[in-house]
Amino acid sequence: MKNNFKVITTLLAVVTILCSCQQEDKYHHRSIRFTNNLNVLLYVDYDFDYPDTVLKNHGEAMVYSNGDMHKVSPKTQATSPLWNPEFYEVIFRGNRIPSDTITVFVFDSKKIESNPVEDNEAIIQYYYLSLPDLKRLDWKISYPPS
User: Fold this and answer.
1) Closest CA to 138 of 29, 45, 21
2) 26-76 tens-digit pLDDT
3) Residues contacting 110, CB < 8 A, separation 6+
4) Buried-state track 56-70, b at ≥16 Cβ within 10 A, e below 16
5) By the 8 A CB rule, do 43 and 104 touch?
6) Per-residue pLDDT tens over the stretch 66-108
7) Helical H segments across the chain, by residue range
8) Rounded to whole angstroms, what are the CA distances from 77 to 26, 33, 38, 55, 59?
């Protein structure tokens, strides 16, 4: 009985590792690319709690440490700042989020870095994106919007 349990546990671990190593392709995306077209540093982040446009889970700790926000240098495209360990398509289709839309936030780096402020005060742009929107945009967004 113990040997069967060990075998099953080992097989489950191997399957989990193999599944987590799946590569992105045209039907499976873990990242949304972000292009910063400005001459200033930006921060970006996302949240699945649309239509609530307040970042609830970050709070002041995020602002002080820049938490999960991702820096995007001036005039560059960040290849995976909005990375998720699970494919976005699976998340959207699995009805595991409150709606069919995610919110992408663009933050003013000067406000974030100069003073401890509430993260919502530093937001300069919201993007509300559904799975069809992301597909239409080829999983790329930019600021300012084009």
Assistant:
1) 29
2) 889 999 999 999 999 998 988 888 776 665 544 443 443 345 678 899 999
3) 40
4) eebeeebbeebbebb
5) no
6) 456 788 999 998 877 788 889 999 988 887 788 889 999 898 8
7) 2-20, 59-65, 88-93, 109-114, 131-136
8) 19, 7, 11, 24, 27
